[in-house]
UniProtKB/TrEMBL annotation:
This is ABC transporter ATP-binding protein. Keywords: ATP-binding, Nucleotide-binding, Transport. It comes from Muricoccus nepalensis. InterPro entries: AAA+_ATPase, ABC_transporter-like_ATP-bd, ABC_transporter_ATP-bind, P-loop_NTPase. The lineage of its organism: Bacteria, Pseudomonadati, Pseudomonadota, Alphaproteobacteria, Acetobacterales. Residues 5-237 form the ABC transporter domain. The keyword rRNA processing does not apply. Belongs to the ABC transporter superfamily.
Length: 256
């Protein structure tokens, strides 16, 4: 079967001032299956965002390529939704208008647009805030709105770069469960970058560990915990063992 996303020997160099070059990503290869949820961890600067931005079509590789359903990525596309740490909502639009935005741009009629928006607003638990403006929402609520907006346009792939990075621990855990619920209903392919080892294990079917200098794939750790994931699982010995393995791979790769 054709993988949904295929990174094929993807490298990216950046020019440094003074004529030098920096290898941010070195021959990164990875296949992500349809409906798979992978998490990506690694030390700061190991090329996580670089890899994701190349898959999003926001950045060009200097060597190699990324294929989506077998076709080379040449730029951004509606089949790939991107969510960043900073909730990029339109401040002058309500929650519902934000979620409807992509559908409006695509020319979808109002009634259908509203049905879809309301469904995703419900899935992320914002029904009571559909008429609210972003400035009246908490950080977690803004990020839930951003997730609903990304899902509404029906992308096959969600690329999420530390979407919960700016949130407090409790909100983060709540949003992790909500994201998994949405994912289990919609089964999009998700690539999720995080600095949080617990988050990587809790969400991912596989944890992709990257290493720095140069940025590269270090290890792929399968997470042998069934979905749906539960709060009890976080306390299990199996979870602890996985967390330790990921932690060692990220912070003490020589001992992993
Ligand atoms: N536009 C750029 N010009 C020069 N260097 C860059 C550029 N973008 C990224 N880099 C460098 O490439 C390396 C990888 O950056 P990237 O943002 O992909 O890392 P990351 O793993 O996502 O880091 P973090 O976890 O800190 O967000 C870093 O050392 C960064 O300084």
């Amino acid at each position: 079967m054709t993988p949904r996303i295929s990174f094929q020997n993807v490298s990216r160099r950046f020019e440094l001032g003074g004529g030098g070059e920096f290898l941010a990503l070195d021959r990164f290869s990875l296949e992500v299956g349809e409906g798979e949820f992978i998490t990506v961890v690694g030390p700061s600067g190991c090329g996580k965002s670089t890899a994701m931005n190349i898959a999003a079509g926001l950045l060009r590789p200097t060597a190699g390529r990324v294929l989506v359903d077998g076709a080379a990525v040449e730029g951004p596309g509606p089949e790939r939704g991107v969510i960043f740490q900073q909730y990029a909502l339109f401040p002058w639009l309500t929650v519902r208008e934000n979620v409807e935005f992509g559908l409006r741009v695509a020319g979808m009629p109002g009634k259908r647009r509203r049905e879809i928006a309301d469904r995703f607003i419900g899935l992320v638990g914002l029904t009571d805030f559909a008429e609210a403006l972003p400035k009246t929402l908490s950080g977690g609520m803004k990020q839930r709105c951003a997730i609903a907006r990304a899902y509404a346009v029906d992308p096959k792939i969600l690329l999420m770069d530390e979407p919960f990075g700016a949130l407090d621990a409790l909100t983060r855990v709540t949003l992790q469960d909500q994201l998994l619920r949405t994912w289990s209903q919609e089964r999009r392919t998700v690539m999720f970058i995080t600095h949080d080892v617990d988050e990587a294990v809790y969400l991912g079917g596989r944890v992709i560990v990257m290493a720095a200098r140069p940025g590269r794939l270090y290890k792929v750790i399968p997470v042998d915990l069934p979905y749906p994931r539960t709060e009890e699982m976080r306390l299990s010995t199996a979870f602890a063992a996985l967390r330790n393995e990921v932690w060692r791979s990220v912070y003490h790769p020589e001992a992993a």
